[in-house]
Automatic annotation (TrEMBL):
The keyword Oxidoreductase is annotated on this UniProt entry: yes
InterPro entries: Ring_hydroxy_dOase_asu_C_dom
One example GO MF annotation: 2 iron, 2 sulfur cluster binding
Keyword Zinc-finger listed: no
Ranges for domain Aromatic-ring-hydroxylating dioxygenase alpha subunit C-terminal: 13-70
Protein name per Swiss-Prot or TrEMBL: Phenylpropionate dioxygenase-like ring-hydroxylating dioxygenase large terminal subunit
Keyword set, alphabetical order: Dioxygenase, Oxidoreductase
Residue stretches in coiled coil: none
């Protein structure tokens, strides 16, 4: 993890590295468990086909807003 050198003053760099590694490992393990569950669900015959789940409206909204902004940006006379 990157941090300003002043934050390490008086600390053992090896100990800081070990703590950061342990924290990253814990987060990655949580992510792995969640992603494996998603992969199992995707294989279900009840899972619908498509790019996005109906439970992901925020992602769809973002891409729609992005597309609209790009279209407006490329069209003369539109703001």
């Amino acid at each position: 993890m990157l941090m300003p050198p002043a934050l390490l003053d008086g600390l053992d760099p090896q100990e800081v590295a070990e703590e950061q590694t342990a924290a990253a490992t814990a987060v990655n393990e949580e992510d792995r468990i969640g992603l494996e569950a998603v992969q199992r669900a995707v294989g279900s015959r009840f899972a619908g086909r498509g790019h996005l789940s109906p439970k992901e409206p925020g992602v769809q909204l973002f891409y729609r807003a992005l597309a609209e902004a790009l279209v407006q940006e490329g069209t003369p006379g539109r703001e």
